[in-house]
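SEVERITY: medium
COMPONENT: batch folding queue
REPORTER: lab tech (J.R.)

DESCRIPTION
The queue accepted two submissions in a row. Attaching both inputs and their returned structure tokens so the on-call engineer can compare them side by side.

ATTACHMENT 1
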Amino acid sequence: MPDATRLNIILGFAAIYIIWGSTYLAIRWGVDTLPPFILAGVRFLIGGGLLYWWAIARGAEKPQKKHWLTTGIIGLLMTVSGIGLVTWAEQTVPSGITALMIAMVPMWIVLIDWIRPNGTRPAWIAIFGVLLGFGGVAFLINPTNIGGLSEIDSLGAFLIAVACFSWALGSVYSRYAAQPKSQALSAGMQMIIGGAVLMLLALLKGEYAEIELAAVSAKSVWSLVYLITIGSYAYAVYIWLIKASTPARVSTYAYVNPIIALFLGSILAGEELSSWALGCSTVIILAVVLIISAKARAQKIEMGDSENIAENADDSGQITGDSSEPAAECC
């Protein structure tokens, strides 16, 4: 593990738990008086530019031309189709419920990584987690209004579901696409390209003509500033934590963020959460815990197999014992 104090690691986890969990409320406040694509576009153009500059300043190699293509594809899938649609949907869907639905991302990643060419079949516990999670989301959207839950807009919920699938697709693609060595540089490039496309979409949708600067609230402006600065900082902390801690521990943000978002939305924005929604929330978070736990277990098995192979290798690097390959990386 890289040299890092225990306090720094604790503060790092607090950052990705609380800050990322709070960005959903910031988006909700932002779209109160700012058009959604303009909000997301400005956020990613400036935030991506700052991250790109920071990576170059720290000695990252400048990207090759092919890297702009691959990071552009990732940016379209994750920042445009992913967060762009989420930003639009939060005009009608509460921030806490939005964060809870975003918990579908690990479920989609399991399925996409399974059905891709030479894909990885997930463990049965992960498959059960996927089924449980999608069931919880289906009851949460609740088109028949069972249990009196009627605050979720069906179109907004559908767009969030599409955004989750797109984000998961981009996540799987990013594992195998050629990218710069610096993760921060790659993320900055994705954000810059995604931000530019979002600003173009804002133009095509007529958001520039619709916006009234005099009507933009201070809360929306400060929410945008928060997303650009603190939100981008949280991503940089996430990049650091991947090296300072373990992927299994870092991935716990996936089921902590919805809890934080639900709490903040209820306390600061007065978003009501029915007992039905609370029950569905419990099911969804349990499903994410099962999926991430299965992933962590598979990673431990893979690491153990890799160590066994390394021990059986001679000085020339050839395997002298069991030649079976280590288990493929889990989703």
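ATTACHMENT 2
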Amino acid sequence: MVSHRIRVVLADDHPLVLEGLQAMLRAEKDIEVVAAVTDGTELISLVRHHRPNVVVLDLQMPGLPGWDCLEAIRRASPGTRVLILTAFGDGEFIQMAIEREADGFVLKTDPPQQTLAAIRQVAQGHLVFPQAARRWLRRQPPEGLEALTEREREILALVAEGLTNTQIARRLNVQIATVKFHLQNIFQKLGVRNRTEAARFYLTAHWGRPSIGK
């Protein structure tokens, strides 16, 4: 959990959805909704003004479409995390979210607690994607990761699932220091700076495959 309140901007073209999200988040002591908006162009202005920790973004936005909003948020406030909240959950949309560097992807049909957990996770710097995507990733042979050892690929896959070093150590029955050692090697081999960039590299390596279907 972050040590301060997570400042959130909500963006959805349906006022009723916004009202429901605000009501849900209002009950959470560690989350503060600083703005809610139904228009994409207005969203970018609010992001510049508030510099929120997280934007919960619908893809169907008037004024400025959702994917364009995502890119504009990156330019307006690079430190803001973007969580896609959508009704579209097929492989194409998840792949686009990864390629355009969204920090997470949840479905409107998911339980509310799952959306709450995703907000907290992306605020902490984790990538959050559906269980279906994780299952698919575990079935595929690694691509673009040839420099890594089998153990390093195993640890990287768990990082991409959002597990902490402690959770990875417990899962693999190793010491935390061992996990940290492997992560340092992974970062160096992949040319990345942190676990979020490493997880994104892993996700992109798999979801960037031309053969991905919906």
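NOTES FROM REPORTER
The longest helix spans residues 176-190.
No errors were logged for either attachment.
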